[in-house]
Amino acid sequence: MLRVLRSFMQDRSGASAAEFALVLPTFLLFLLGIIDVGRFIWFVNENEKAAQIGARWAVATDIIPGGDIGCATSGAATAGLKCYSYAINGIVDQGLPVPQANFPTVTCSSPSGTLACACAATCPFSTTIDATAQTAFDALVGRMQDIQPRLNSADVDVEYAWSGLGYSGDPNGPDVAPVVTVRIDSLEFRPLFLGSLIAIGIPGASYSLTMEDGAGTYSN
Predict the structure, then answer these.
(1) Beta-strand (E) ranges in the chain?
(2) Average pLDDT over residues 43-66
(3) Which of 100, 168, 188, 206 has CB 3.0 to 4.6 Å from 92, enough for a Cys bridge?
(4) Which own/partner pairs from 67-71 qualify as long-range (CB within 8 Å, at least 24 positions apart)?
């Protein structure tokens, strides 16, 4: 009996399997961690590229605040930013740059699923959302989703800020050429090594360009 017990205790044939079973969970967590680092970097890069392409799209397509409101009537006091005339409405003399005080920053977003634009101070032009404005925003988000498919309209903000460019009464387009900033709010990232059960916020991204023509439905 002692000989059998001694032989059993000295048998090392299953040691490798037991050691492998102990090391395997740690190895898998390490491997998944490496994969998650790559996924995280890729995710952040997608955000940055989506913001860049979004800004490019925004400056070369229809202005969102006010859409086409007032465009059918020259000098309409209720026109949106695209067709509002500071000269005809007596705010800034013809040919002069629009002062920053007369063009506060305007931000358009859809946090609850309904698009709205709000001015940092009182805007002389309309920020009402019409069909043109809604279509422009939806097209912008759709283009950004080509780069970052995880985002939706609630994650995107479009800001129009004073740049000093443009002039009052411009007959060929908007009186202002604002700096347009497209932002992506923090999106969620779920690491594989945590079983995708816990979400980690990824810093948002933003990109700014100066408005070009502010009219159209497509940009390269």
Answers:
(1) 106-109, 116-119, 156-161, 179-184, 187-189, 200-202, 205-210
(2) 95
(3) 168
(4) 67/128, 67/129, 67/130, 67/131, 67/132, 67/133, 67/134, 67/136, 68/130, 68/132, 68/133, 69/126, 69/128, 69/130, 70/126
CA dihedral sign of residues 107, 111, 113, 118: negative
Q: What is the pLDDT of residue 191?
A: 83
Distance CA 176, CA 157 (A): 20
Structural contact between residues 188 and 200, judged by C-beta atoms closer than 8 angstroms: yes
28 contact partners, CB below 8 Å, separation of at least 6 = none
Quick one: pLDDT band at residue 63, thresholds 50, 70, 90?
A: very high
pLDDT in tens, 19-39: 666 777 777 777 777 888 888
Among 158, 159, 155, 157, CA closest to 187:
155
* Residue 152: closest CA among 191, 206, 106, 109: 109
